[in-house]
Amino acid sequence: MTTPKSKKRLTVTDFAKMKSNGEKISMLTAYDFAMAKMLDAAGVDMLLVGDSLAMVVQGHENTIPVTLDEMIYHGEMVARAAKRAFVVVDIPFPVNHHGIHEAVKAAGRIMKKTGCHAVKLEGGADQADVIRAMVNAGIPVIAHVGLRPQAVHAMGGYKVQRDRDELMADASAAQEAGAFCVLIECVPAEIATELSGKLRVPTIGIGAGAGCDGQVLVTNDMLGMTTGYVPSFVKAYANVAEQIASAVGQWCEEVKENTFPDEDHSF
Ligand SMILES: Nc1nc(=O)c2c([nH]1)NC[C@@H]1CN(c3ccc(C(=O)N[C@@H](CCC(=O)O)C(=O)O)cc3)CN21
Ligand SMILES: CC(C)C(=O)C(=O)O
Ligand SMILES: [Mg+2]
Q: I want to staple 75 with a disulfide (CB 3.0 to 4.6 A). Which of 37, 104, 114, 257 is the partner?
């Protein structure tokens, strides 16, 4: 168990230092105040208000339906809870493709309304101009390369991405455009390790092996509380769904038997 060394807010500078010191970065998704409070207190370095909330929270089939206003609504709750963690909000489909002007406007609205510390967008070389414009506006950006869930229909499903040259081109273009961090999704460990070695900025992997500078998972997956399909790269550190079923089952029984509430829980 590691506990946070300091309660001070982490910044982009800390993540650069962590890369040069070889200290791995921990990132988990958070979608609401209560969970964000617990993750922050447990010492998670970065909280991601991921557009995966479309699937995990809203029950959609993929991440395409979630809107900018909904991302802002969840971002507000998470940023309000985080004291130490650096908070990142995903730009939802297809807002970063609305042209540079609209994309920067949307990122600015996210920063202004939520109080988060950075935005993340899916894309690499194709998004270099958008990343550069956001960075020029003082908005820290994480570029998300490899498997891009917002392009699920174009990619023919959630598949491991193995085009080494394309991955390298995307990651370096994002870095040169000013991204302070590159997230790598569903890439063979060997390629992700090579990318992490070549980039100056830290990489954060999901389904990308142990050679990245940090790791991210969907919190509901690693806690064992995702009701649908869970990707094979996820390790379950708890079985919260089972604990909820058992606790709620017991409560229902006690209500039916009229043994809850007892005297201790009545006025
Ligand atoms: N609950 C949840 N967890 C996630 O990690 C996640 C989401 N939702 N929603 C948005 C994206 C979609 N993600 C996914 C979804 C499925 C696979 C998947 O099925 N991968 C296969 C590999 C397929 C292949 O061999 O090419 C696997 O076996 O895990 C991967 C990433 C990651 N993200
Ligand atoms: C899976 C992570 C990287 C993400 O982008 C999300 O949660 O939306
Ligand atoms: Mg996302």
A: 114
Give the ligand 2 atom nearest the CA of 50: 8
Q: What ipTM was assigned to the predicted interfaces of this complex?
A: 0.96
Query: Is residue 194 located within the same domain as residue 62?
Result: yes
Residues 174 and 266 in one domain: no
Whether residue 6 lies inside any domain: the answer is no
Residues 195-230 pLDDT 10s: 999 999 999 999 999 999 999 999 999 999 998 899
Please write the tens of the pLDDT for every residue from 121-175: 999 999 999 999 999 999 999 999 999 999 999 999 999 999 999 999 999 999 9
Which residue segment(s) compose the domain that 245 sits in? 239-267
Identify whether 185 is a catalytic site residue: yes
**In 98-239, alpha helices (H):** 100-114, 128-136, 152-155, 164-176, 189-198, 219-222
- Residues 248 and 149 placed together within one structural domain of the fold: no
Question: Using CA positions, which residue lies closest to atom 7 of ligand 1?
Answer: 52
Say which residues have a Cβ less than 8 Å from residue 184's Cβ, sequence separation at least 6: 145, 146, 167, 171, 192, 195, 196, 203, 204, 205, 206, 208, 212
Residues 122 and 140 in one domain: yes
Q: Is 218 in the pocket of ligand 2 (CB under 6 A)?
A: yes
pLDDT for residue 7: 85
Query: For ligand 2, atom 6, which residue shows the shortest CA distance?
Result: 50
Q: Indicate which residue of 102, 176, 185, 190 is catalytic.
A: 185
> Same structural domain for residues 170 and 63?
yes
The Cα–Cα gap between 141 and 103 comes to 12
pLDDT, tens digit, 9 for 90 and up, residues 84-94: 999 999 999 99
